[in-house]
Protein 1
Amino acid sequence: MVPHSLSPLLVKKLRAEFAGSIPFRHAFIESFLEEDSAQRLAKELEAELFEEKDSDLFQFRQTQDLHYSKNEVIKDFLTYLESKEFSDFIKGITGIPVKQGAFDVSGSLYIDTDYLLCHDDELEGRKVAYILYLCKDFTEQDGGALALLNEENEKPGEAGKRYYPQWNSLLVFEVSRKSWHEVEEVIGNKKRYAIGGWLH
Amino acid sequence: MAALMLNKAYTDANVWHLIREDFRKGKPKHAVLKAFFDKNRYDALRTELKRCARNNVKIADRYSYSIIESRKIKELFNSSEFLEFISFIAEKKITHLEIIIREFGWKDYTLLHDKTSADSGLKVFFFVPSIDEWDYFWGGSIVYKTSEGKSLVFVPSENTLCIVDKRKEDEEFTQYVNHYVGSERVIMIEAREG
């Protein structure tokens, strides 16, 4: 599994973006994997079994922990996530000392009317959240944006920033008491596939 | 608003006993009463609710809905006839009900919250949807996750009264309302033991 060129210059640019971002520290990386790798990974992800998840907070579909996947392409991607290259890349961007090979990973699928309401992801050990979009580009009409919420009087407020899923893009953000975010409802027939989790 | 004006079916003492028997069987105890008010009373109630101003409230990690204030509705659900009826069904003396009137449309919801989840006691919901046939798939149902691991779902339905004796361990929330609702909305009058 080959990431797109992670040159020192790109890391430097992303580090600045991460440090100066609002409403909380995050970075958005376009064309993360080489196109061929992204295509293969997306195809295999779509073949995984997705289980419907439903609670007060969310409605979407999720794979098992992908560490248990027997799919060679997915295993290859996990090998990359486990690599020193990847943890160094994340450390380079965020300045946060994530531990090599310590991460959660699963696939998610949001279809029409699916959503994930406001939460902060904070749980012991989680340092950086990551999500790799493996779906067609979404627009405002399609919904499905990841909304990063402002903090107002120590409570989540309005969306300070919205990211509509973009093919083969990676979004990372620091997990903290104020990393309030939500996935806005998907509207229409586009399928919002992604792989994501947390680095510890 | 004057007298309670129940649907005639609910003025029969035998019916009260049947409802109470049904209520006792639930876990948590509950009953759903369709066509609760007579048509004139229900129409008057809708007219009153239409007249009232709405105030949007949102704390993203807890809830999103509009609040409606109506003295008349509060009085109606605290009338001696209503309290007598509820006390009979619940088999406990209810002398006062705290009333909150919420309206839900697209993107509205409530989430489980430690403080409200730990509440217990009698709760009454009365639905006033903007459309006769509210579709379950739009969301907006009141869901109880019970300690038995089951879900008890109250789907909005016009002129329908739901009575629940919430136990401490039951978790309650209102499902997110999705885009298929369009411009339709549902008002939920919630009365709780005060």
Protein 2
Amino acid sequence: MSFQAVMSQVMLGLNNGVFYAMLSLGLAVIFGLLNIVNFVHGALYMLGAYVALLGFTRLGPLVGLPDYQMNFWVALVAAPLVVGALGMAIERTMLRRIRKFDHLYGLLLTFGLALILQGVFTNYFNVSGDPYEGKPEIFNGAVNLGFMFFPKYRIFAILASLAVCFATWFVIERTKLGSYLRAGTENPELVKAFGVNVPLMITLTYGFGVGLAALAGVLAAPIYSVSPVMGSEMIITVFAVVVIGGMGSIMGSIVTGLLLGMVEGFTKVVYAPASSTVIFLIMVIVLLVKPAGLFGKEA
Amino acid sequence: MKKLLARTSASLVALAAASAFSAPPKEAVTDGVVKIGVLTDMSGVYSALGGKGTQVAVEMAIKDFGGSVLGKPIQVVGADHQNKADIASAKAREWFDTEKVDMITGLLNTGCALAVQKLGGDKKRVVMVTGAASTDLTNSACTPYSVHYVYDTYALGKVTGQAVVQGGGKNWFFITADYAFGQSLEANTTKFVVKGGGKAVGSVRHPLSTADFSSYLLQAQNSGAQIIGLANAGADTINAIKQAREFGIGQKGQKLVGLLIFDTDIKALGLNVAQGMQFTSGFYWDRDNGTREFSKRFFAIHKAMPTMDQAGAYSATMNYLKAIKAAGTDDPDAVMAKLKSMNIADFFAVNGKIRADGRMVHDMYLMEVKKPAESKGEWDLLKIVKTVPGDEAYQPLSESTCPLVKK
């Protein structure tokens, strides 16, 4: 086990970890503020990637501009907006109606939605995935980190995701807007009495949470191929991350996502076949020792 | 009405009596049509090297043959097997049972090919595999109605493996597609690497259709092996080679060797990335006048030069039709007997012969990717380094575990 081997796999693990972090962060925001176990998150991550892919390959001819290809940077903004809007429509028309019931109903509803979205995309697109070719040219090439060559785009993806994660944490935990959000979930009636439009706030929060998933989807598109099942492959791991970090804990989900990505990478050096199960092993141990999760508050 | 009924039953009795004494007169072409099914990967990782192009090739063969055989029309149907064995065998069953399909060709995935070939064996229908590579098809899984036409993992592993070991590449690490094909290719290559005095220091398996090869590549890099053998195909091979470059792997002393490469892969990678790579192929469009003539006609329709799978599907269809004509019937037993006794010689197959185990043995080629400066056109990608006679490239019949081989 050489230093180089460990460092390079851990670096790749960090690369996967930022995607875990970004997705579990969205889940944590939605669970923490809306009390919804949002199982459709993976499908919306997939949808984000498809907005980038289809924007690049199909949008131009569709609107009569055969040469138009949606730029990567445009996709970074457009995908969260499109998917966020869809998310808000889902919240308004469906999730809102089951708010007063048990968590389980939200879980089943969103799980059903995920299956529908995935089914529709599997019907129209190739299950094994299509490559996204719209990576900006400035990201061609790699940087020599001493122990390995690391592609520039991946470095960008890591930095961009970290920036988004910490900005989200800052807004929710350290700003006035964030304090409204947190108060709104603690005691909606009281916050309403202060003149805050709580239902609108909830819709926007849900839209923001799923927008994060879409953003992660766009960032992931140039690295992994875009396929209808990319979300369902990811969502199970991401839920494990949320459980380990502590349901609803913002910082918990970010830190756990990054750490577990790196643990996965490290496992690949020690015993590669275990890398796909190590996260679940950790989840079992954490649930036994600290059922509320590493960063969760005991109920 | 009564009269009609009486007359019909009388003639039925007569017919039954007649057939009891003599064999029933056989229709030369069952169902009045010869139907060929192209079952292949139309949308997935392997679609570029087979897919629609394979169907184009089969249609060309039917047209060149004249559109009919023994006075009956020849038709073609196509479907996507999605690289899933269950989908492939369900489609093949439907074709055999209800759509009068006489022969299935293509089959770009070993799992699919094994399933359909077995079904063909049960139902007595001819299956001519042009796409899949695993040697299982002509060993334990062989049937009296199966032909493995273009290449296999034995020939690939032997020709490429020997050439690389002779060039000094002794230590191998494999990145292997985790299903029957990848495992067969790794095992066959390892055998010849070891025979040549080399050794396999390790391997890692990836699922079919993987987008991110980075962690597998790093494991290969850290193994310290001289040669990273890619026992995969299609888009998987393309992704692995592209990402190896991104991560600076395969430059300092280590070398990537693709064990199954198609012209379309080289086209996708570009000569800059692929130059100097050596691999084994059963066909190259620019080999001689015959291959060029076919390939240019194919290009005019498909807008890409034919891969060995596509050219092989043309040749397989053509020879199947010739066998029907020569046998005077489309009866599978008679056609197979003809196929196994005739010489297979056309632009595709040089010194071709179909053996008892279903293996179509023909000359194979060790190819090398040209340098960008050597290329004179968009599809001027490869040069033939060495021609390996079929009997040298393929598994000898004496080693075959196919029960049809008499020993």
Protein 3
Amino acid sequence: MAKNSAKDIEVEAFATHQIITQPNPLRKVLRRVEEKDMDDPVGRAEQALASLSGEFKDWMTIEVQRLSAAWTAVEKDGFTKILRDELFHAAHDIKGDAATFGFPSAAGIAESLCRVIEHAPDLEKVPAELFTHHINAILAIVHENTRLDRISVSAELSRRLRKIADDYLAHVNRDRPEHLEVILAPSIAPVE
Amino acid sequence: MFRIDFNKLRFLVCDDNPHMRRILRTLLHSFGAREVYEAEDGATALEMYSHYVPDIVITDWAMPIFDGLELAQMIRQPESKGNPYAPIIMLTGHSEKRRVTVARDAGVTEFLAKPISAKGLYQRILNVVANPRPFIKTKTYFGPDRRRNTNSAYMGPERRVGEKHEVLQQPSLIDKARSSI
């Protein structure tokens, strides 16, 4: 269903480009219905997601164990490319998943950690405490706190760590305007 | 109003994180999809793309072997034997504006920043099903039309040469990424 045959595809050629149009190959899956006949696929999906929530704590525990192991490896062997990438990906996954799993503050701290890894000009010169404070905070939030922690101490911890990390990044990138621009740009992530 | 018959759609989900794949599978099945294929890296996804010919690809950005950006670039090969036109929804923890631009330039159709929500995902799928954009081929780009604004008076260096006014009334990718909730 996904692909139209070549004869359906129209190509308009211009000096610098071509515009290619084709009949919508997915049109057959669209059905016009009365409002009263609309079901609620989003509501259904939200319910299904809620039914998974009993597993979220375990999933988060696995994610933070990975982060912790990645940092332990960096402490042992330094920021090799492989270890740097593993630490970044572990933090990046928590940044993306933790809010869904009910740990929005952990997501914020993981984002701050990702920014340090991505924008510090020399990771070996970053004070180790900046990493350990971020990682320990995520571990503590997941191990000690309950989910839905947005109004708790962990939210304040997240804000302060982000401030410290941002101040550090602004300082070490003061002569790198292209990094400063990215660091200071607002996030496009959906707001909770 | 329109309803999507999800049971007629074939999805390919590509994410190296098993938890996120489980969430995506749960959401898509709840929408009504039956055919959801999963890959945990870009290379496997490309193989599955050729084999299963999905209608819609949902991919993470950061993945092993090759990432979601490279996957999009490999799918968007105009001379390939496969289907280079399939909608690609990039679902990623990257949340910087420059990333949206890079994804757009790789041929990504829609961008969805994590954390994922049922509503955000549904809206992206509805958009690629109901409002497909024409494809543009230049020397350096092949993919869905990147211009969603209606500024036909634009005279900057990136203006296309030799065409009539173009009217594509859709919100920009960055605005949509911001308003996913």
Protein 4
Amino acid sequence: MLLSTHGLTKRFGGITAVDAVDFTLEEGELCSVIGPNGAGKTTFFNLLTGVLEPTAGRIEFSPTDPAAYGNEAEDGVVDITDAAPYETALLGLHRSYQITNIFPTVSVLENVRIAVQAHRGGDSWRFWRNVNAFDDHVTEAESILQRIGLAAEADRTAENLSHGEKRNLEIGIALAGDPDLLLLDEPTAGVSSEDVGQVTEIIEDVSEDHAVLLIEHNMDVVMGISDRVAVLNQGELIAQDEPETIRESEAVQRAYLGGYDPDGAATGTDADDGGESGVSAG
Amino acid sequence: MDTVTDTTAAHARDDEHWLREYAREHVPHLLVIALFAVYPPIYGLLLRTPLSAEANAFLPGTTFLIAMLFLGLFAMSFDFISGYTGYLSFGHAAFYGVGAYFIVLVANGDVPGIPAGTPFVITMIVGGLLAFGLALAIGAVSFRLSGVYFAMITLGFAQVAYELVRNWNYVAVNPQDGPTLSGPTPEIGIPYVDSVSIALGRLAGDSFENVLGLGIDISATLTSYYAIGAVVLLSYFAMQRLIHSPFGRVMIAIRENEERAAAIGYNVFWYKMVAFGFSAFFAAIAGALFAAFSRGASPDETFYFLVTADALIVTIVGGIGTLAGPFFGTAFYEWLEDILSSEQGGLAPYLRGILPDGVLTADIAGITIADLINTVVDGRAPLFLGIVFVLFVLFVPNGLLGSVRDRLGNTVGKYVGGRLERYRR
């Protein structure tokens, strides 16, 4: 067990965005989280990474290096329910964003390098040494650029990349934190259909040596690469199983195909949960 | 064995290369330093040539040069936090004021526990540390906010400090005019070693006559100029060092995208706090230099919000987030001020001198040319700087140095270094 949530709940006023979710993820697993817009997927990520505080419930994480955050329980299990975003990151929980969230005016290499530097302990507090003297940061950043196919763009300013390249960089920054668990929030959002294949390849490659939790609307991608698929609807975890079983599930099809009533549709808490979802399930 | 020697040789070459590269990248620095070092004697020579009237009118005099130095350092410290973390410190004058007041109060024996005879360099640094602590206290509250709210709350703190010192009878007999330095002249140099210390001040400072037998006289003002310049230079290199360190890169990451900086594992609050502390430290150094040179400090010249506003304006003109830019912005401002005031030469006396009486008294729509000069030229630097500021915001938003860097595609140092490298081959 790498990650587990127990009765995880988040309410915004009268709206329940995430509703008593019990979820576990094993090491090395690639699990997709799907669900209609407003199902609470991104909110779920925000709870896991400490951006939002849960209304109720508990989150446990078993990182490689539990010492990075003091609140350690037995067996290397850490309760990260109240951890701040930087603490979850130092523990090995890294995320990418649905809306590209990079460091725009610095170079592509620096985008990744600064993320590498973050988990190099006290390096960031070395005031008197030139940053170029830390060769290992650059070497690691370069190998990550290689992995996400941006090695040739290292010196370009990040904001000048194409949308597809920015999506890859988005993953690269998350990858640079040496994560135990990678949370990818719609990595193919806005990516042209020709380029989806390349992003998928990167995800598959990354999942070789990382556990991955993937929010994705493109069902070809989800069904193609997931070990397991979890379905959220109106904040509730309504199903989780192998891709084939999920594809056949009636409950899932109901959730997607008008299965939710107008009241339910109003639970649009995932305000930024990208418009057209391109659902092709069933 | 061969391979071993090969790598050592390669290493030796690498080291040399690294040193040369370092030197090359500092060529622009050296040029600027040289310019500031040789300017006063050249200015002095020009005043003895037939061009003296022009030199006096259009070139900055030494008093303005010194103001360039400490105000430039203050503007750079403002840019250090504002330009590199994106948090506009609108209360920066408070740190400048702390540095200024602290050295005056210590010299006057008004600070309990610190003897009046403590060397200036030490009190200056202690004042800087005090400002560092004050920044942590202000930051602990202010960094809960961001954007314009951060700017407003820091401004609020500075105004509180301003009102406090303006009405605090302890600091001066007349607190609204501020304290004056009554102790011995502050000295820059190695504490307790008289031979390597230089006294500051317009009148009471050290002066040297016939230096090295070259017939060059260095007045007290000029001595202060070089001594203050040395401190400003050291402070600049220290700040530059910080910005080029891993810590500085985190500051830039916070400016670029604070949410993401937190998400990749930075406790952004403490990075902002420490960066704020450093910028306050150097602001206090600038304040100490100002107070030492002018032998006193008044609330309106230190804690007042317009002091911060001047730093903001020269930072925009020079280029925000460039560190050296605000210094050049300050130089530009002081130069403009010199031309447009009649304190040391200036345009108004020059025009009055060269224009024939007939022109001066000529009447245009009820106003004479002489009146016009008095109204729109003499002492009107803030007016013209305001116009320049508006033009910069509209047309040169990246400022002087920022635009140069955009044009070169790199910092000036790296660019010049690269060019020199090519010529060497």
